[in-house]
Structures are given as structure tokens and as C-alpha cells.
Amino acid sequence: MNRQQRRSLLRKKPQQKPKQTSTTMNAARAQEVVDNLPLPAIVSGINNLLSQLEARSVPVYDWDDPERALYRLQMRRGKIYFLAAAPEAEPEKED
Fold first, then answer.
1. How far from chain centre, in Å, is Cα 81?
2. Do residues 60 and 66 touch, judged by C-beta distance below 8 A?
3. Where in the chain are the domains?
4. pLDDT, tens digit only, all 95 positions of the chain
5. For residues 55, 33, 31 and 64, what is the CA-based torsion angle, rounded to 10 degrees?
6. d(Cα 49, Cα 55) in Å, to the nearest integer?
7. 50 CB-near residues (< 8 Å, 6+ apart)
């Protein structure tokens, strides 16, 4: 490359790359998506999270009765119910 070619390269304006639309999700956009989800989708998502916690051996306890562990949400006729299991009581031995 000779001196004239180098000068012409230095004088040229750098070409601007075309702007790309952002495909990343920010917190406000994520909250907007969650706000617009239908209730069955939210219940299903919570059930997925509960199954992940169960797989990691992390129980979610009932606030009012700490012996009961929440294991599932269920939607019936537009109402949402939680299913919680109480620990199995050991049978008493009769002497």
C-alpha cells in the first residue's frame, strides 16, 4: 500500500453498521409479558417452578401450618387452589 492509498483510507469516514433492533429482554418488557399472560399459563408456570424446587429437594411450606408442604396449584372453574401435603403420621404400635 502506497502513501496515497493510506491517506485516502484515513480520510474516509468509517461506514456505519446498520442498527439492529434489540432482541434482549429488559425488566420492564419482561414484566409486561407476565402481566399479559392468561391465568392458566401463570398457574402452569408456578407448577413448573414447584417441580424444579422439588427436584432440588427444597420444600415450600404452608405459612399457617409449617408441617404442610405445598406441591401443586390447580385451577378449577376459574378458581386457583393449592395442594399441600402433610407429613405422613407414623402408625402407633399397639402392645
1. 21
2. no
3. 60-87
4. 788 888 888 887 777 776 766 667 788 888 888 899 999 999 999 999 999 999 999 989 988 888 898 889 999 998 999 888 887 766 676 65
5. -50
6. 10
7. 60, 70, 71, 72, 73
- Paired sense of beta strands 60-61 and 69-76, if any: antiparallel
How far apart, in whole angstroms, are the C-alpha atoms of residue 72 and residue 44? Answer: 10
- Helix, strand, coil shares of the chain as percentages rounded to 5? 35, 20, 45
Residue with cell 417441580: 51
- Distances in Å between the Cα of 40 and the Cα atoms of 37, 53, 77 are 8, 20, 11
Does the predicted TM-score (pTM) go above 0.85?
A: no
Burial zone of 54 (CB within 10 Å; 0-12 exposed, 13-18 middle, 19+ buried): middle
- In DSSP terms, 70 is beta-bridged to 60, 84
